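Hi Y.,

Following your request, here is the sequence exactly as I used it, all 114 residues.
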Amino acid sequence: VQLVESGGGLVQPGGSLRLSCAASGFTFSSYRMSWYRQAPGKERELVATISSTGGYTNYADSVKGRFTISRDNAKNTVYLQMNSLKPEDTAVYYCQGLGYRNYWGQGTQVTVSS
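Below is the corresponding structure, written out as tokens. Let me know if you'd prefer a different format.
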């Protein structure tokens, strides 16, 4: 089983990034997928969730209207489009798959700084 995140990096405030999480080794289309983040010295927090079919999404208040979660079950991939990024969005972003089991990726660093 693997969840491999990509797309992180350094971006200026107001900029955009698109994170991807490629899944393998389990039935991706049966799993609810989420993005979490963890900033230095803080607890891991839920950023966004998408249901197995993509018909339901939910967001943390801090990212509503700026971030969009989506998935492509044919490609076994979940995405997080992040717009209007702020310095407080700086964190390691993790992909999670929740279903019969709970799977985590290794994380990708997002740094928002001028």
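The chain has a mean pLDDT of 97.

Thanks again,
Q.
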